[in-house]
Specification:
Blueprint (H helix, E strand, L loop, with lengths): L19 H11 L4 E2 H8 L3 H13 L3 E5 L5 E5 L1 H15 L23 E5 L3 H12 L4 E5 L2 H7 L7 E4 L8 H11 L5 E5 L5 H7 L8 E3 L4 H13 L1
Parallel strand pairs: 4-5, 4-6, 6-7, 7-8
Antiparallel strand pairs: 1-3, 2-3
Helix pairs in contact: 1-2, 1-4, 2-3, 3-5
């Protein structure tokens, strides 16, 4: 499969602002041959939080994959699916240069076996929650998402989900507080905390001394690894 690896990313000239498409294309471009996160941050001129945000989205949608270098550090590499997206970005740019557009390649998808695991994702960042939902649905999970922990608590029905995936740092109510209140309604519900921040181990153990710390998952994480963790936790 041949790709146009010589796509030049154009400099944005509108008040120094970059669109989401430009940011995503920049990360995919940087990661074509594999890149550490600090290189993505430096070459893309991103904040660490911004890099985590978009790397997570690209991992969830299968445009990036993770591996390890010889020192055990996480390396992010653009997938074939990501290269196709990057090629589309190049074709969009050609609309403004007068160059002819090339026919896009279509990636074939292998159907995944249907799973009955029901998951509720609560994250105050809508694009993260949406990308996770789409990625998990590709694996045939039943997924609901919400960006409002207060509303989740009000409308929660016991027994509705096999697993809750909660962000920790959210406005109005953090993930620990939300789970503590939900446990009053549903004693059997299971939880997984997904966070880009340092794990608040002591705070968590005080609130839930009987829950294993492995219920924390550090993002960014690939969708395949997240699926494995969900299956493990939901089945435990």
């Amino acid at each position: 499969m041949d790709f146009q690896d010589d796509i030049q990313l154009l400099q944005d000239s509108i008040g120094g602002q970059r669109s989401k498409l430009d940011v995503i294309a920049s990360i995919l471009h940087i990661c074509r041959d594999g890149s550490l996160k600090n290189h993505i941050v430096g070459r893309g001129n991103f904040s660490d939080a911004m890099a985590n945000h978009y790397i997570s989205i690209l991992l969830y949608r299968g445009f990036l994959q993770t591996g390890k270098d010889k020192n055990g550090r996480s390396v992010y590499t653009t997938t074939d699916k990501g290269r196709i997206l990057l090629q589309h970005y190049g074709e969009i740019q050609k609309l403004f240069t007068g160059e002819p557009a090339a026919a896009a390649e279509v990636e074939s998808r292998t159907p995944q076996p249907r799973k009955s695991i029901k998951v509720l994702v609560v994250d105050d960042e809508p694009d993260i929650a949406s990308a996770m939902k789409i990625g998990l649905q590709d694996y045939e999970f039943y997924v609901d998402v919400s960006n409002d922990p207060i509303q989740v608590l009000k409308s929660y029905i016991p027994g509705s989900y096999d697993l809750l995936i909660l962000d920790i740092k959210m406005p109005k109510m953090n993930g620990f507080e939300l789970f503590k209140e939900i446990k009053k309604k549903d004693e059997n519900v299971k939880v997984c905390y997904l966070t880009a921040f340092e794990v608040y181990y002591e705070e968590f153990k005080k609130a839930f001394p009987d829950i294993d710390v492995t219920h924390f998952i550090r993002k960014p994480i690939s969708m395949s690894d997240l699926v494995l963790q969900i299956r493990r936790l939901a089945g435990s």
